[in-house]
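Lay summary. Proteins are chains of building blocks that fold into shapes, and those shapes determine what they do. In this project we predict the shape from the chain. Here is one chain we studied, written as its sequence of building blocks.
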Amino acid sequence: MRIKKVTIHNFKSIRNDFVLDIDKKVTALVGASESGKTNVLKALEKFNKGAEYEQDDFCTFCGEEPNPDFQMVSIVFAVTPEEKKILEDTTFELVGTEEMTVTKCFGGHYLVNDHTYPFPPSPNTPDAVQDLLNEASRNVKELKGMLEQVYGQRAELGPQLEAVGQSLDELAKYLSQSDEFTPLKRSEGADPFAQLLERWRTVQDSLTQLPESTPDIENTIANLRGEIEADEETFAQLLELPPVGMDILDLVPEFVYLQDQDVEFLEDSIAIPELEQSPEKHKTMMKLLALAGLTIQDLRIDNATTRRRILRNAGRKVSQSLNRAWLQEPEISLEFDVSENTLRIHIQGREEHYGRLSDRSEGFQWFLAFHLNFVASSSEIDNTVLLLDEPGIHLHAAGQKDLLEGFEEIAKSMQIIYTTHSAYMINKNFPQRIRAVLKGGPEQGTYVDNKAYQPTKGGPYEPIRSAIGLSLGNSLFLGMKNLIVEGIVDHILLAAVARRFAGEGEELINLQEVCITPAGGAQNVPYLAYLASHEDMKTVVLLDSDAEGEKAAKRIDKEGVFNKDNVIRIGDAAIDKKGRIPKTLEDLFEPGFYQSAIEAAYKEVKGSKFVLPELPQAGKKGRAGGAAEEGVTNNNLSEPTDGSEAGEHRISSDKQGIVKQYSNLFEEKELGDFDKVLVAKKVTEMLDENWSLDKESSKMFQKLFKLITQKLA
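And here is the predicted shape, written in a compact code that computers can read:
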């Protein structure tokens, strides 16, 4: 299950309601030392089954005393269609649920959607099963009676009748053991319904051995077979259901808390018998062997030539994986050696001799161990949320950048929540993932800013800068090459599109070199541009082609605070055949794509029944291929959907642009404010999940990024 939101009550430095929004992949908790970041992770670790709260876990300054029913941590989980079916089959309380809230109380018990857990048995399960068993038993008795009546005592059918009788007796006996069908006793490989089906089919097989000598007999046998097949179909359906009474908490992921010292370093050498007898004590070494494709048997090969060849190939495989991850130092080689029944590991950097791993820096040893345990083997780890407390603290800034890339690989199979007070452990290309953890006074305790990426009056990323004590000129916010944009949405969309093209083998812009910085509105762009250029940083400004963007451009030109030749307007990137100019970045997307993103984003917020209203002038949504009701699926939106000619991009004819149109529509339909940040996050997900841009969108974004890179050269 995927986490959407966490609420923590009165845990250590956290008092009252601490509500934390969780990203689908990686969530960064940024804050100064002693702000309470670790307490957030520890609260989640205590959510695990079997973990017990202690008196010291309860907030000491909250003015309350803990009691067993006090709700400590509540987690909202998104429910997939598969999980929804399991929940509905398990209990009536969760029928129709699209998200599930699980709460752990101080006494260690849980609530699920505000109901005490475990739930009472569902009335539709054991009783219904028992009714089916009783009906099957009646059918068996009826079958025996009909066979005796039809065939009588015909001696020549003795063996066949005896076979049928034995199979019926065995089936009847099994049906009488109704306690074996108790849902909690069902287990993989020994399901009583599967065994029942096996006996049912044995009866069918024995019936085929009986002759059908008269029409009456043929009709009787046909009717009996029909009843048996109907019962068989019923029990086959029961096989598809999950074991009723299953522990719903088994669907909840396990929270694994790690500090740097918890990562087991790789040994320089180990005796092969020790590794064979106690592999659980040498998990990192076993992960290394798995990545290398080695087994204990490979290490014991007697033929030295064969063994050296296998070990050499294994070393190359590990070296390739490590070089893809550890980018700050290319051409690292790892070598295996076996002698005197001992496995030894040697490592070599460029222009170095092979040496012991323990002679390398602590940061490198930690990175290698983390890579083996989590990055290279992430696909093997199931239903887990990784809680990392100040990861990579011993790494150089370049190593921390490599670690962030490793997080992206891990996040393909599990969510990560990590804490940091290092500017270099903040991935500026995913600002929407950043949460600022701050420490208030005794009346407030630890609190969180879930929208720390939103610029304030203090400038871009002010909450984050305050949390970790950085100035605006710090390299996290401004670099040697800068692209200053109006707002956070521009940052999110540009980074997402750049990653999409990079994933297809075309790098439009190097996100590691170019720092995209949102100014918090067009009115703030001139000052930020002046600040960057004054420090001799190469800087380009990107402004919307709307009224606010026009004001900012004129101010830059009039005041001379920045080179106007380095100002790009969205309209400079694309003008379609009819002369319509896109106002914002959103107008560069095909409307069907952007509308699909809106609908998918709001379905998550408002529920699956949400229907996106139609724009008045469109007459229809213009969705290419149609948006799925339960979520978004991959489509290549390459064809026009609003009546435009093929090859012509569908820029809105409305002078206000698509964002303004939907803002007006949401206000008109009383749907609340149109949240373009929410939609931008969904666009990011869609592009990261291999949605493709249509041809015209691709051309315009290519043109836009080309303008940017030319001016930054």
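What the prediction tells us: The first helix runs from residue 37 to 45.
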